[in-house]
Structure of Glycosyl hydrolases family 39 N-terminal catalytic domain-containing protein:
Amino acid sequence: MKKRMPHRRSAYLSLIATLLLLVALPFLYIGIQTTHEFLTRATGTKAAIIVDTTNLLEPIQPSWNSFAQGGEEQKNMLKPVSSKIAELSPRYIRIDHIYDHHRVVRRTASGTLEFDFKAVDDIVASILNTGAKPFFALSYMPQAIAQSDILSVPRDWNEWALVVQRTIERYSGKDGINLSDVQYEVWNEPDLFGNWKYAGNKNYLTLYEFAVKGAQNAQNVNEFKIGGPATTQLYKNWIVAFADYVTQNKLRLDFISWHRYTTDPTQFAKRCPAANYL
């Protein structure tokens, strides 16, 4: 019996190997077939693509003709890339933080206000070098006139009106930079930055009203536009309250603005018709 054991073991191992091979064959076949299909697709075949340039479908509406500088940095972020941006032929470039980052407004020892737009002028020059015009977010509250911080109400609403007036005279004024069709947006996301409301003590409607008064006081200026409220979304309650207040008080309003955080430009197009029904 002991002499026959190796033969039985050998036969047993052969049987196991045969069974394993039979089990593995279908998987081996599938693997070979999948590899063949993958390699066949990877090689590809030439496609005959024909573009008929004489057949006009519809005009392309570029979504890239207006940009936002953002103002996340105090330095002029546009200057190093202005030539690249120019290749996109932008119409407007929006900038904010113009008052708090660049110390446009200072209060003298006698209590009067002084204005220094040199730093903002440099950014505007970069915008003009791209072929675009500036779109100003009139933000945030200059520390020189703020009741507390840059997100607070001013100590004197008439001083806020004066800041807006001097800004418009600087860039839209015929004695200033002398630009036409500049757009001025009152504040940036008031529902987020400063927790402004459309009622109560910290009222965006008051902020807008005095900004418009400043715009009306601007002397010897070219055509420009002013609007708001630049909220973080198209909030119906905000827009309705804003539009009602503007209408009741006969305030100038050239555009209504809001923001939309998305990487899909079509989302903006979908929201625009909704504003018509508010």
About this structure: The first helix runs from residue 5 to 43. The mean pLDDT is 86.
